[in-house]
Design brief:
Distance between the termini: 70 Å
Largest sheet: 8 strands, mixed
Shape: globular
Structural class: alpha+beta
Number of strands: 31
Bound molecules: oxalic acid, manganese (II) ion
Helix content: 25-40%
Length: 599
């Protein structure tokens, strides 16, 4: 079957093959030839498009089925042994019951297809912080995206040896082919109810069925590096987080590393690749989506980016919002669900150029600006090797990780939350992480619009275990080292609006001004005033030189509106009820203390 000295791996591959009944099994070596030949097979079969090789060398476009365009949160399950260990009751199914259901779906699901076995490493191969997984998938699209997003192939298998630990990741698009049946461009299970993104935390195992898209199918990313890794992190005393990692160098050459947790669609990738708007300062990228943090021998937290690529949202990415992402995707990039121009290039809404007169939209149809439809799906993506980003920090693959000085948390809030707020101590920082979130802008129930969807540390869709226990784990991390060695936690909000419903802060590259204040605080020179909600910059502490922003606007951005905060406290109290008994008492105390300071 496959040649490996790892008995458990061999047995698992044989068991899966017997269940899924593929035509053949291919063990991925991770080579460039393998990658190229798989892309070519798909293009030759008409399942993908090679882009204009002069404009976009090495680039390809794929279009997904219109029913399979994003992560399916309502089909994501955490099948822990005990129901109370799951993040919430609605994502829990008893593991043996779930396995029995899914085994029926998997039975014969790979007929007519090749079963690919993809050994992969999350993090640099061999780093003490890295972990190994093996994904079995019947999707060639998954193989070449995993090749970009993780480190795959023979070297990983060698590192695994004959008895190394690995996370079992099983994936099928859920569309077997009958003899002679022609494949569709994007096979997937026909109905949403047939899709399952299942996690078995105690077994460190993932079973995904029915979707070929993004986090549903590239199992190293959200399923492993967040949901399963969070459980490993809890058990082993470290942190697996939905955070970017950036490197900031000040004019004197001093270097700081900062992590940031923001819900999806808050510009994490843009912030990770930011171009500072004033001279002398440099921002470089370590990671844009996930950080694994462990204590080093010196008692500080060190972070690695467990990924090797970026799976970024294309719409809205432009030379204004993220010039370094635009430079990264000039070559060797897989595009999914973007528009195809008549000269074989890509286009999407918010790319910063005029819409072409004609293109082929993400569903493969003719499109003109008059169509009244999106050329690219709102969740269209680019998959690109991180090494192609022109501002990757040299140490992005350092197996030891980078020492973290600050952690940002935040969301999209039109009001109440100031531009930046420094936590008073670790527990207060965890409190701020627990209350972050975004206003709901679209909702089936219009009553929800404007309400805050609290998204603790941006992990709401990615918890692998009980969310109260998760916050308790954060609190316990703060007790493992000297307080002065812990990163400082900052609550930021780029999205505050004025009375005219306009964003007050320009965002994008100008966010570097806030980063500057943060590192000035860390080095001891930044000026702050203590308020009931935390330490805020003094009126003149944020460098606004060269920026067209009035003193009044800055005052509004840094205002602590006590009445608004008391409404916030009431809303947090309501949200905290959803934790039940698992709510850490330290956080209840933080909330009480805040209310007291406000009144
Ligand atoms: C992502 C997400 O794709 O958070 O990174 O949804
Ligand atoms: Mn993300």
């Amino acid at each position: 079957m496959i040649s490996t000295s790892h008995k458990e791996l061999k047995a698992w591959v044989e068991e899966v093959a017997a269940l899924c009944k593929p035509d053949s099994v291919h063990l991925c070596d991770g080579s460039e030839e393998e990658y190229q030949s798989m892309l070519q097979i798909m293009v030759d079969a008409g399942l993908g498009v090679q882009l204009n090789q002069e404009k976009r060398p090495g680039c390809y476009l794929f279009r997904s089925h219109p029913s399979d365009v994003a992560r399916v949160e309502n089909r994501t399950f955490i099948a822990s042994k005990n129901a109370e260990d799951a993040p919430s009751p609605d994502v829990w199914i008893e593991p043996e019951e779930l396995k029995a259901t899914m085994r029926k779906s998997y039975d014969g699901c790979m007929r007519g297809r090749i079963m690919y076995v993809i050994p992969f490493s999350m993090g640099p191969i061999g780093s003490p912080i890295s972990k190994i997984g093996v994904e079995i998938s019947d999707s060639p699209y998954v193989v070449f995206n995993m090749k970009i997003m993780t480190r795959i192939g023979t070297k990983v298998l060698e590192t695994l040896g004959s008895d190394g630990e690995f996370v079992k990741c099983l994936h099928s698009v859920g569309k077997p082919l009958a003899a002679g049946e022609k494949d569709t461009a994007w096979p997937c299970a026909p109905s949403i109810d047939d899709k399952y993104i299942s996690h078995f935390p105690e077994e460190r195992m993932i079973w995904s069925f029915g979707s070929g898209y993004g986090g549903n199918a590239l199992l190293g990313k959200k399923c492993f590096a967040l949901r399963i890794a969070a459980v490993q992190a809890r058990d082993e005393g470290w942190l697996a987080e939905h955070m970017l990692i950036l490197k900031l160098t000040d004019p004197s050459g001093k270097v700081y590393y900062v992590c940031g947790a923001f819900p999806s669609a808050c510009g994490k990738t843009n912030l990770a690749m930011l171009e500072p708007s004033f001279p002398g300062w440099k921002v470089e990228t370590i990671g844009d989506d996930i950080a694994w943090m462990k204590f080093g021998a010196d008692g500080r937290l060190y972070a690695i980016n467990p990924e090797a690529g970026f799976f970024g949202v294309a719409p809205g990415t432009s030379m204004h919002s993220n010039p370094n992402a635009m430079r990264s995707i000039e070559k060797n990039t897989i595009f999914t669900n973007v528009g195809l121009t008549d000269d074989g290039d890509v286009w999407w809404e918010g790319i910063g150029t005029e819409p072409p007169e004609h293109l082929i939209d993400w569903q493969g149809n003719d499109w003109t600006p008059a169509s009244g439809k999106l050329a690219a799906h709102a969740n269209a993506r680019f998959t690109v090797p991180a090494a192609q980003c022109p501002v990757m920090g040299d140490e992005w693959e350092d197996p030891a990780g980078v020492p973290i000085s600050a952690i940002l948390v935040g969301g999209r809030r039109e009001n109440t939350i100031p531009l930046v707020n420094e936590s008073l101590d670790w527990n207060h920082g965890v409190f701020l992480g627990s209350i972050m979130g975004s206003e709901i802008t679209t909702a089936a129930i219009t009553d929800d619009v404007g309400q805050v969807r609290r998204d603790p540390f941006a992990m709401l869709p990615f918890f692998g275990y009980n969310k109260g226990d998760y916050l308790q784990h954060w609190l316990s991390i703060g007790k493992k080292t000297d307080a002065c060695k812990l990163p400082k936690i900052y609550f930021v909000n780029w999205f505050r609006k004025n009375a005219d419903n306009k964003f007050i802060w320009p965002g994008f590259g100008e966010n570097s001004r806030v980063l500057k204040w943060i590192v000035e605080r860390i080095s001891g020179t930044g000026k702050a005033v203590e308020t009931p909600i935390g330490n805020l910059p003094t009126a003149d502490a944020i460098d606004t030189s060269g920026l067209d922003i009035s003193n009044d606007a800055m005052a509004e951005l840094l205002q602590v509106d006590k009445e608004a905060w008391l409404i916030e406290v009431a809303s947090i109290k309501e949200n905290y009820k959803s934790y039940g008994k698992a709510l850490p008492k330290e956080l209840e105390e933080q909330l009480e203390a805040l209310e007291k300071r406000l009144s």
